[in-house]
Amino acid sequence: MSDFYFQWQVNKRLIMTTKFFNLSIIYTKLFLKEKYICFYENLSRRYYNVLFFGSDLISLKSLQKVNQFRKSENIIKRLDLVTANSSKNKTIIEKYAQTENIRLLQWPHLDIKNNEYDIGIIVAFGHLIKEDVLKKFPLGMVNVHPSLLPRWRGAAPIIYTLMHGDETAGVSLMKIKPNIFDVGEIISQQKVLISKDIKLPELTEQLSDIGADMLVECLRTLPTCLTKAIPQSNEGVTYAKKINKGISEVRWFSMSAKDVYNLYRAIYGLYPLTTKFRDKRIKLFNAFLVNSDPEYTNKSVGSLEYCENTKAIRILCKDKQFIYFRTLRVLGKREISALDFYNGYIKNVPLDKRNVVIC
């Protein structure tokens, strides 16, 4: 009986020891898992030092929102600004940085150390990034580009979007590759529909807001968002090269009325449309189309006349459709209404010489 009792006690202790051992393993695993989760969360909540590259009004919007984000959430520890302005006069973005105590660095003499900043941000900067600069950022560099890449790579994507009559525009957030523009992996994209009458300043502001918000979201989700970037497609690649004022010259014999109107929208606020009338250089303002216009097949392309119904000067384009202008300006003169232009430059001209625009 005593042997049986003794064996029972031994078995009981073995069972209890085994349970305790198994529970210990379970608790140990739970403890380690909790520590791992805690470690991962701390890692994902780490602070980042950010170096912002930007030079104009478009980049100001992003800098402002990133700076607001820095103040409201404990993710960005340090935010500095690089500009390429060599003038003694401060740009609007530099003035903002100074009021916010954001340190200014001068391109291309950066003098920054490896890993001094975690990530670089580029918005409307316009300078190629060399490999030696890119290597200084452990997380690389991110660029805000106002087009749906790979469409409209280059310096003037919004202008080309409008000039070519695109029905959609958008913003791409992409990784920077050294020594080349606009070919990096896409982190995120957002598409917007374009209204038929929107002009360059309004679309620029809209896309600037969207890009700034996308940039803040990228910073909020670092570093995960960077790992999800995908390569750009090799199809649908187009280029938006830098423009100059020569783009404003209207080619009536090769452009439809819609082409001219799209050009007007695309360069609005930069350059007015220009042409010649009776050897006088004129600038054209306040353009619009009349949807109910028929085709004027009995008139010559380039015909210029005053339209009483619209109180506008209208000019016939390649497709035999008119484009209308409410005000005009002869070079060296002030801007005047279409009626004043008619009274001053057309009314007293013989009928057979009125309808010629020298392009």
Task: List its traits.
359 residues, alpha/beta, 15 strands
What does this structure look like?
The protein has 359 residues and is α/β, with parallel strands linked by helices. The protein is built from ten helices and 15 strands. The chain has a seven-stranded mixed sheet with strand order 3-2-1-4-5-7-8. Helix 3 links the parallel strand 2 and strand 3. Helix 2 runs parallel beside helix 6 and helix 5 packs antiparallel against helix 8. The protein is elongated. It starts with a helix and ends in a 5-residue tail after the last helix.
In short:
This protein is an alpha/beta fold.
Order of helices and strands: HEHEHEEHEEHEEHHEHEEEEEEHH
Number of helices: 10
User: What share of the residues lie within helices?
Assistant: 25-40%
- Number-wise, the strands total 15
Kindly report the average pLDDT value.
89
Rg on CA atoms, Å: 32 Å
The portion of residues forming beta strands comes to 15-25%
Identify low-pLDDT runs. Answer: 17-21, 26-45
Main sheet attributes: strand count, strand direction, barrel closure: 7 strands, mixed
**What is the terminal-to-terminal distance?**
122 Å
Q: What structural class is derived from the secondary structure elements?
A: alpha/beta
Strand order of the largest sheet: 3-2-1-4-5-7-8
Outline = elongated
